[in-house]
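User: My instructor asked us to take a sequence, write out its structure as tokens, and then describe one feature of it. I'm not sure where to start. Here is the sequence I was given:
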Amino acid sequence: MHNSVNGKRRFTSLEAVIDAAAHRLLDQLPRRGLSGALVEFLVFGLKQAWACLFGGVMLGLIILSKYLWADGSALPQLITRYDFLFLSAVTIQLLMLLCRLETLREAKVILIFHIVGTAMEIFKTHMGSWIYPEENLFRIGGVPLFSGFMYAAVGSYMARINRIFDIRLANYPPLPLTFALATGIYINFFSHHYLPDMRWLLFAFTGLMFWRTSMHYRVFRFRHRMPLLLAFFLTSLFIWIAENIGTWSRVWLYPGQHDQWVPVSLSKLGAWYLLMIISVVLVTIIHPPKKPDDQP
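Assistant: Let's start with the prediction itself. The structure tokens for your sequence are:
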């Protein structure tokens, strides 16, 4: 069964139906050579898109809202842009649960992402790190509540990709050490406003802790391997690109973007890299790291 790994379900019931239908089609395609590699690459892209479902829909709505709430539109009189995004995010989350696109356990850890992210948003906007320039109803201080769903989208992706790609981690560090590192990273997001910024020390600890860790994942027919630190960087890069889209749409703005849009600083790429550590550690709450089959 494609849906079973060591007796545990990899997919939700709906995902299992989709997986079976995909195999009926894809099993007929070439296995070897360039054609086989293209099939593997195609499936990789489709699975990534599926794992990004929540975040992709939210990003699409952010882009759409830029035009729906343009000057002269009647929509601002009916509902604010941020409240539209908040109510849309709640609806999407409920639909993902009702349609069995997400498990209840995943929803719980995504809620943790939402709380952790909103707490940081409240502090960072208070310190002037970025702002939300529009008014709305559903907010805490200067933070519209939809913003927490941006962090929840990262959590959703991390949790779903773990199942969809049947990720195994070789030489993963002891869990207490990873939780200590994640805690230190989260504290530094706050403390660097008052104390010396420890991010370079945290980068060093991250490298030492995970330099031997490799991620083993199944795309379609074959298992592949990637250094976990590289996976952190690639994921951070895509989030940084998404953040550029968010600021281009003026949903939130960093200093220097008020008069005209400029790309988000590359330093934010480092911040997202560190956030990946927190994300991975939180996901291990519901998906404890599994070793590859050939590792004792």
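For the description part of your assignment, you could build on this observation: The CA atoms of residues 115 and 140 lie 12 Å apart. Try explaining in your own words what that tells you about the chain.
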